[in-house]
Specification:
The complex is a heterodimer. A two-stranded antiparallel ribbon of chain A has the order 2-3. Chain A is α+β, with helices and mostly antiparallel strands. Helices cover about 30% and strands about 10% of the residues of chain A. Chain A has a domain of about 50 residues: Orthogonal Bundle (Histone, subunit A). In chain A, about 10% of the residues are buried. Chain B folds into 3 domains: about 290 residues, no CATH class; about 110 residues, no CATH class; about 55 residues, Orthogonal Bundle (Arc Repressor Mutant, subunit A), CATH 1.10.10. Chain B is of the alpha+beta class. The chains are: A alpha+beta, B alpha+beta. Chains A and B meet through strand 1, helix 3 and strand 3 of A and strand 3, helix 1, strand 10 and strand 17 of B. Strand 3 of chain A pairs antiparallel with strand 10 of chain B.
Amino acid sequence: MPNKNTIVDVPTVNKIARLSRLDISEGNKESLTNDLNNILGFVAQLDEVDTSNVEPLASVTGHKLPLRNDDVNDGNIEHLVLKNAPESSSGFFVVPKVIE
Amino acid sequence: MNDTSTLKPGHIQGETGIWEMVIGLEIHAQISSKSKLFSGASASFGSEANRNVSLVDAAMPGMLPVINEFCVEQAVKTGLALNAKINNVSVFDRKNYFYADLPQGYQISQFTKPIVGEGEIIVDLDDGEQTTIGIERLHLEQDAGKSLHDQHPTKSYIDLNRTGVALMEIVSKPDIRSPQEAGAYVKKIRSILRYIGACDGNMEEGSLRADCNVSVRKSGEEFGTRCEIKNLNSIRFIIQAIQSEAERQVDILEEGGTIDQETRLFDTSTGETRSMRSKEDAHDYRYFPDPDLLPLEFTESWVQDIKEKLPELPDSLKKRLVKDFGITAYDASILVEEKDYVDFYQQAANGRDGKLTANWMITELFGALKKDNLSFSESPITSENLGELISLISNGTISGKIAKEVFSEMMKSKKSPSEIVKEKGLEQVSDDSEILKLIDQVISDNQDKVNEYLSGKDKLFGFFVGQVMKLSQGKANPGIVNKLLKEKLK
């Protein structure tokens, strides 16, 4: 489907990819940009509805945000927390150096 | 360079004229809850690495955050204490960024609809002046984990114990005009938080830290471009960092440069700020409402219940101390700085001479603690014992001079003052006949001086008082000595 509206361009896709830490090959960028424009163009149809006087809908269930008491009833599971870590040492996750 | 001695705090004398600082603060205060904001793991400090981590904090798939009611209550309490608007409906948003100590890949925070809106507080400055600083907002958010970069040459070590601990971010309006005002503002916020028990205010452990937004302008001009100095954890550093950052900006502007809006770090070893993030990495947080959390709603009556339970706050307490105990506004402002001080003072001064108690507490006790390098909670002298000392002075049992001796003994031995007075036989002698005996002896020992005095050398009177006091080892009541000597030497 051809793009009627260009909502995002290649530099924007590059930026989103970098913010999301995604490595996208040069050859894929053009088609991804097209795909995104198609998706966004489809969703943009919603803009045709006037919602200026409508409050954002947080939930269709009518539930309220549940609250819990301030009790300590979790934790002490270092072994589970670290189980999937590629590397750990004396209870710490160990990752490539991230200092700037 | 022009003479800078007459510059007001917050003003910088440049080549092109006087520059003014514009400062806004973001204070991060850790809520004094037992468990985390959205999980039941412990929020305590100093545990083994990753011990206080639940699967929610570790961001395992399928985990759902459930909010801690106590934390919500502390945010509302703080909002009320900051005279701020409470928003009965607020929304949690995801603030997206990548860092190794943020397993979710986003921080749950509040962006467009915070729990607390605009407010204001009165800040006491060192010169006794007061100024009002506006509060822009207060919101709830999660703390991040901790990265250790010095354990290994090529690796970072990550501890998620702090991940998800509840923070309140208190954002001021850009109303602050000098580093000193910024320091006083943080002091006041810390004091309020401690009074209401929402945060322990411990800056060394990081329970309270501040980001400072600093820009400079010529008086009356528009705000300049600001820089943000991150994560300052002492009032002294806040003052130093703001001063040095403002001077840096003035230097750049006067050389014809422009200020880049950026995040900077304060290097405590050099006393200067340096750039923290390169521009290309400028953050784009892509906030959006957290689909895991419904809006946070509470009723007005719940807010009213909290309001009724609020303790007396420093400003009103200060007024009451001046009124009830007759002390100066300055002394009162020192005493209300910490809740512990004011509790101690009220116990010690209860039913006693308020001014005398304030003097002894502020001058003698604070001075002695400082000299011995003790914190207030480590004071060897209790409020009961200080109060008792005040009573002993007021009812004439001991003189002010002897009281100082008793006081230093109290600092050493922790004994009660009446015990010390008894053991050392320090009671003031107020009995006329005892004092008359001393006077008689002084007169017979110094007959020549008595003759000089009687022939008109009035100044010698002080000498006789001194001799009697000396003979009594300082214990004679000076008022009675004076009175009896006058009669005797007519």
